[in-house]
Amino acid sequence: MSVTNYNNQHLTDEEYTKIQEALTSMKQICEKYLKNLSPEERKKYGRVNEQNKLLVNKTYDYHKNQPELQAPEVNWEEFEKDYVSRQRLEAIVAVLERLNIGLYNAKIMHDNDNYQAALTDYSFASYKAGTLDPNFEKKYKDLKQFFIKNRDKDSSKEV
Q1: Taking 80 as the threshold, does the pLDDT of residue 6 lie above it?
Q2: The pTM is what?
Q3: I need a surface site. Which of 1, 49, 81, 116 has the fewest CB within 10 A?
Q4: How many CB atoms lie within 10 A of CB 11?
């Protein structure tokens, strides 16, 4: 017998509504900051790797601690705003990525629970169809369509 019900934590209607409201609020707040970059723009502007971030951090450190050494051609007010925004956005993205991974993993477990239960129900329908119960015969035929062999790849495996 297969193991089922890997994830017994279920969102309540109230929790789901609160999450939807929070997401709507976040989307509204973030809307003006969202940028759609083309692949070319990503390639052009996406060159700030970890080594370059260290350069930016060290430049910021000099700006704060030894401003007499900074280049007059740089708009340091804008530099500081960009620096703070970058840090804030990076922190937000890190939280969202952790949430995304955790929620996606929870969804996978619920998907698996549903699939295992559906297989069990299909087996039961198959058994009952063998007793010539017309209702179960119809259900079995309806569900059987999802177990048609894939002839293009490997005809010995069910899809």
Answers
A1: no
A2: 0.75
A3: 1
A4: 13
